[in-house]
Amino acid sequence: MENLISLVNRLQRACTALGDHGEESSLPTLWDALPTIAVVGGQSSGKSSVLESVVGKDFLPRGSGIVTRRPLVLQLHRIDEGREYAEFGHLPRKRFTDFAGVRKEISDETDRETGRSKQISSVPIYLSIFSPNVVNLTLIDLPGLTKVAVEGQPDSIVQDIENMVRSYIEKPNCIILAISPANQDLATSDAIKISREVDPKGERTFGVLTKIDLMDKGTNAVDMLEGKSYKLQFPWIGVVNRSQADINKNVDMIAARRREREYFSSTPEYRHLAHRMGSEHLGKVLSKHLESVIKSRIPGLQSLINKTIIELETELSRLGKPIATDAGGKLYMIMEICRSFDGNFKEHLDGVRPGGDKIYYVFDNQLPAALKRLQFDKQLSMDNVRKLITEADGYQPHLIAPEQGYRRLIESSIVSMKGPAEATVDAVHAILKELIHKAISETPELQQYPSLRVEVSNAAIESLERMRDESKKATLQLVEMECAYLTVDFFRKLPQDVEKGGNPTHSIFDRYNDSYLRRIGSNVLSYVNMVCATLRNSIPKSVVYGQVREAKRSLLDHFFAELGKKEGKQLGTLLDEDPAIMQRRLSLSKRLELYRAAQSEIDSVAWSK
Question: Contact, 437 vs 457, CB < 8 A?
């Protein structure tokens, strides 16, 4: 069972080392879940003397006013033999065998945190005492409750101390050790008053009466010790501390304990209660009770730790990795983030994520519809055919067939296909830009670093624009190729009209009659439709090759090349994480370290029934 108190001691030390003092914060707290015993009392209640009696050593600072200005977590470890010594949590490798040095270090460490302004602090001091004269026990000594601020302290000190004490004892896992002087009315006891507020049924409060030997003659504390004046679930315990004269004479604490036992056993009023009186009995009762409370809390504590670890890991994963400190680490980090983004972008194109299907919609619907909307009937109207054929013949009519007229009619019709071709390139470009923005929003690390997000977005869109320009050139060249070289076989298969095309004796006006011109327009339309069908298949190939394929292959190549030229400081500007997020990650990491250590500590303890 001793392992249980030692376990809590280790967990409390880990809490302090990693910044968990049980204060209100956005972080989960392990401190509040640990069973503790908080010592509460007014400044003149004899609180310090009770603690020293339990320990058997003079080690606490003394003086007027508020002496305890920080919580003191006092961890007692029973050893079988050897010299007594003390260790502080903030001085882990230094052993104090002179307890006057312990007293001085408590004062010095308090001043380091609070200065010499007599202010208070909620950051605890950890003190471990190893002795054969103690029981395994952990106590938290809190600043004494006061009613008036002394010189050099703000008026709020009274309320500040009360708030600090309340913040400890209001937690359901806190056992309250309420110290009250027997020579004062319990109704006015600071410790009882504040304990009653947070534990009205007295279910987790131990009452301790001090200064029993200083009561007025003819009076005694029997009613109080028997719980008749104020009933608690646990019996009241009376103690007799050393007097100021004893302290001045450096009376040995072990001798003081012996005199305390003699006082209760020899005083008629208290003889029947002597078996449960005294500081030794108090230490044993508290140790046993703390062990039982810890044992009952272990399953819930394990469950809390496991649940919190999952929550902390989830949030840390969402916040992303911390920034590397060296240039190489930063470069690698940026490259990994960019690869993650690039992978998301490719998944959109490959159908793993939605969006890539919009490109096929452009090829299968928008391009055919745009080609279909081209008004070739206007281009090949009777008047336009006559005009172009006549102009192409010049001063001498054609002999067999109006070849130049055919070419001009075909070229003027095919040129109009540049519009749908360019529109297809632009439509795919717009879809690729949209997928860039989606991929960026789906890359958590880019949300983490705003400057890098902007740089990657700009670099990706600049690459798309270069690809669009090259793709547009290549796609328009497809149209221009159809203009530059006509498919001869198409015209060779057309029936030849010798009479209309080859007899020069007819008038020029007869040669261009409506029937003949309609035949020419029909032939040209058939050829243009054939070209349309060809371009409907070849334009998507050109666009995919020049834009989609290139975007998958080399979207950030130019950005990577420029990135390699940057120095550490320039790389650092890209990783400009929000300071609040950096601090949050650091805090979460420390808290996760604490909970993992706690999990390991609990798992290492073999529980005994």
Answer: yes
